[in-house]
Amino acid sequence: KVLIDVPRSDLAEELAQSETKIRVLQDTLQQVLDRREEERQSKQLLELYLEALKTEDSILSKVAEPEGGPRKEMDVVDTGTSSTDPSALSDQVFAALKEKPAPELCLDSQDLELVLKEDTAALALALGWDKQRAGALQEACDQELSKRLKQVQTLHSLRSTSKGKKTLP
């Protein structure tokens, strides 16, 4: 980065090279930096993808579980019934909802789905909030979940696009 920022004439004089060669050197160094940044971003995207796969696998494995008997979580979520104390949401989720300024950013996708499925009135009562605040929380959770799903779709698109391309040497 330092070599890129140095004026060409100064660097040419210091290295006893022509400014043309220094320009080529600085261009090459810039390309290396750009490639590293692209690799860093790709790595972050891949990590998001892997996290999304884990979440997807977790959801799929819960769906595929054999029914050994009625489960409280399934009763609340599947039947749409809700009590004043939603049992599908864990104490940890409630703590995040109450204490965090932006709880939708602290919850995993599965918990976001549970918050969205919960009745607004029951959620408001359980949190000690009014319905408007609980509705705003559910809307924020919906937006965050949508954003995450778009990221997963982008990753799938990138993966399918990259399958058709040859790997670089």
From TrEMBL:
Q: Which UniProt keywords apply?
A: Coiled coil
Coiled coil (UniProt feature): 8-56
Q: Which residue stretches does the UniProt record annotate as biased composition, category Basic and acidic residues? A: 61-75
Top-level lineage group? Eukaryota
* Domain spans labelled DNA fragmentation factor 45kDa middle: 2-115
Q: Which InterPro entries match?
A: DFF-C, DNA_fragmentation_mid_dom
Q: Where is this region: Disordered?
A: 61-87
Q: This chain belongs to which protein, by name?
A: DFFA factor
What gene codes for this chain? Dffa
